[in-house]
Amino acid sequence: MEARIVFPDREIIFPIPDEPIALWHLIDSCNLECAYCYGSFSGGSYKQNIRKSLRENSADLDHARRLTDLGIRRVHFAGGEPLLRQDFWQLAEHFTMSGIRTAATTNGTIYSSREEEGLRSGALHRLMVSIDTMDPSYGNLYREKHSLVLRNLERIVEQRHKDNWSTEIGIYCVVSRKNLQDSIELARWASDQGVDYFSVQPVHLPKDHRLKKELSLRADDLPDIKALFEELEPLRASMRLSHPSYLSLWEPLILNPGRIDRCFAGSELLMINSRGEITSCPAVELIRVEGRRFGHLEGDQIRDQFPSPVQDCGLISFDCICMFEFVHGG
């Protein structure tokens, strides 16, 4: 099957992987308060929730079993910060022992003996660390604790190669108009360190976000975006990068709105929030649309609640780009 994205001046077609994938936002809390985090989109804060949701949720292991029974083949844990959960490694191990590939995205600030043992055991197939620059001034202005994240990432990659862990280590680099030219420096550093996978993702901010004008990519950034992609290309020899077809979406989405003629959301991709509710798409706009929230992991007939794939959707955004990368890149 294929996903087809239609722009006024072009069409872009993607193959759709034949394996159901779950993106599980395991927790609505974080120990950081990054300026362009989803948690800030409605004037909220994941950091303010930190005391509310660190406890183990006994229902989540039951939820994990339900996902396994549904035939999910890949689970990606997100948040908030999923490593804050005391039962995180128990959940990851459940899926791995069931033959399901697991991955997690972390802000990189948490790395103790617990995380080292979890990674050493192979409970995760891939750990993605979110870091956007080598420049501490940018890192501390828009995120937090830049030097700690960089130091932990170095330790993790070093131990991964020293002890021959099976877990791959990757980087998610969120690209804004302020760090476009710095991103290649981070990519080269990652290649030198032995990082397995490097992904650039465009910053996605709603129209009313206070940093929308300051950070969002615009048409006059396209020469720098093209230069970034060209400089990244030689690094494919040493680490995995985003698929070229994924990168081809950036320019048309900056220049023109588009439509998705047929998307994987709701069939191949399921979004699950911290309450166990299932939606078809991560975009904030879509979750509010009637019919796109369609079930709960505790539902009796959960398999029958899944809709057909999203068709003819005009709400395509940079958030969709990140989901294409997630589905195809892991």
Describe this protein's structure:
Helix 2 links the parallel strand 4 (74-78) and strand 5. The protein is α/β, with parallel strands linked by helices. The model has no long low-confidence stretch (mean pLDDT 83). The chain has a single domain (2-329), classed as Alpha-Beta Barrel (TIM Barrel). It has 13 helices and 14 strands. The longest helix is centred in the middle third of the chain and has 17 residues, at 146-162. The strands form two sheets. Strands 9-8-7-6-5-4-3-11-12-13 form a ten-stranded mixed sheet, sandwiched between helices. The chain has a four-stranded antiparallel sheet with strand order 2-1-10-14, with no helix packed on it.
CATH architecture field: Alpha-Beta Barrel
Question: Shape, please?
Answer: globular
Structural class: alpha/beta
Beta-strand fraction estimate: 15-25%
- The main sheet orders its strands as 9-8-7-6-5-4-3-11-12-13
Under CATH at level 1, the class stands as Alpha Beta
- The CATH fourth-level homologous superfamily: Aldolase class I
- Write down the CATH topology: TIM Barrel
Radius of gyration: 19 Å
Q: What's this, in brief?
A:
The protein is of the alpha/beta class and 330 residues long. The chain is built from 13 helices and 14 strands.
Secondary structure blueprint with pairings:
Blueprint: E1 2-7, E2 10-15, E3 21-25, H1 58-69, E4 74-78, H2 88-97, E5 101-106, H3 113-121, E6 126-130, H4 136-142, H5 146-162, E7 168-175, H6 183-193, E8 197-202, H7 212-215, H8 222-232, E9 240-241, H9 244-247, H10 250-255, E10 259-262, E11 269-272, E12 277-279, H11 284-287, E13 293-296, H12 302-305, E14 311-313, H13 318-329
